Amino acid sequence: MKIEFFKIIRKRTIECVLSTDMAFHSKIFGQISSKLTYFQQSKTDKTLLNFFNDQTNNCSKFDLQQEFLNYVLHIGDIAHPAKPWNIELKWSDLIYKEFFNQGDKEKSLKINVSFLCDRETTSVPKSQVGFIKNIILPSFSLILAIMPLSEEMNKYVVKNLEKWMLCEDEENKNNDININSNNNIKNESENGINPYKANNNASNNNKNNEPNCNINKDNGICNDKNNNNLILIYIMITIRIINSIIDKMNCNLFY
User: Fold this and answer.
1) In this model, does residue 200 exceed pLDDT 70?
2) Could you give the angle at the alpha carbon of 83 between the alpha carbons of 81 and 86, nearest 5°?
3) Angstrom distance (rounded) from CA 222 to CA 187
4) How far apart are CA 148 and CA 241, in angstroms?
5) pLDDT, position 4
6) Hey, what domains does the chain have and what are their CATH numbers?
7) How far from the centroid of its chain's Cα atoms is residue 233's Cα?
8) What's the CA dihedral at 142, 146, 147, 148 to 10 degrees?
C-alpha cells in the first residue's frame, strides 16, 4: 500500500471513530444541520449531497465528505431506537447492563457514580424517552434529509418512543402502588387490599400487551455469546452505512 493512500485511510478511520463519542454530538449535529438549512434556502432540485459536491472544489471536498461520514457513522452508533422494538429492547438492555456494571465499579471505588450508571436510581424507560426525544428524533430528521430511503427507520423511532412512554407510565403506576403499599401496610388487612398482589397483577397484565419493557438491571437479557454476535452485526452494518453514504455522494472517497 502506498504511504499516501495509507495516511488517507488512517485519517478517515480516526475521524469516523472519534465522531462516535457523544461529547461531539452537538458539534457534529450542528455542522450537518447548518448545511441542511443552507440547502433548503437554495431551493434547488438537486439532492443535498449532490448540491454540496457541486458547491465545493476538490480541496474542500475531503472535509465535506468527512463531515457527512462522521455524522452518519455517529448516528449509526446510536441507532438502536430506529430498529424494530425487539432489537431496540435488546440493545437497550446491553447498554444499560454496561452502564450499571460501570456504576457498581465506581461505587466499589467510592467515587461519584456517572450519569445513568446507578442501577438503584436510573429509570431505563424515562432515560430512553429523553434520549429519543432530545437526540434520536432530531438526528434522524437530518438523516432523512440526507437519505430519503431511511423513512422506515424514522417510523421505528416514533413507534419506539411511544412504547418507551408506555413503559414509563407503567413504571410510574407500579411505583405508586409500591409507595401506597408502604404507607398503608398496617391497614392492609382492614381494607382488604394486598398492594403486592396488585403490583404482580399489573406485571402479569403487561405480559399480554406490548410493549415488553423488561430490562433486567442485574444480569441483562443477553449473554456474552449474543453480545459478541451483536457486535459483529454492528460492525457489518457500520461498514454498509459508510459504503452507502459514499455511493450516494457519487464522488471519490479519497479526494
Assistant:
1) no
2) 95
3) 41
4) 14
5) 82
6) 1-77+238-255 (no CATH), 83-222 (1.10.1300.10)
7) 16
8) 70
